[in-house]
Design brief:
Length: 147
Amino acid sequence: MDGRERQLITKLVHSCMIDGKKAKSRVIVSKTLSCLSQTTPDVITLPANAIENAKPTCEVRRVRIAGTTHNVPKILAKKRQETLAFRWIMEAAIKRRLMSRNSQSLDQCLSAEILEAPEKRGSARKRRDDLHKLAEANRSFAHYRWW
C-alpha cells in the first residue's frame, strides 16, 4: 500500500466518523474492506477507483446579479473533488441502509456503493452526473464568475 492509497483509506475512516467515534469508523471501514476482499482480490485500489469515478470536476454556485439569482458553474480544486466524492459515497451508503430498513449493516451498504462506483453506477455517480448536467445547462452564466 503506497502513500496515496493509505491517505485515501484514512480519509474514508474520517468521512465515516460520526460524533468523533473514530474506533467505530475504523471497524466499519475494516469490515467494508473485508467484504470487498470476498469479491475482488485487489481491495485497496477499488476504493481509489470508486472515488475517482465519483469525483465531480465542476459545481454550481448561486450568485445574485441585479435582483436575479443565477447558478454559475465553477471548476473545483482536487481536494474539494475528493471531499465531495467521499461525502456522496457515505450519504449513498446511509441512504441505502435506511431504504433496506436496517436489515443490512453500514459496512455492507458501503461496500456495495464502492463496488458500483467504478462501474459508473450507483447513487454517488448519479449525483455527479446530475451536477455536471446542471453546470452544463448553466454554462451561459459562466461570465458572472469572479472568484
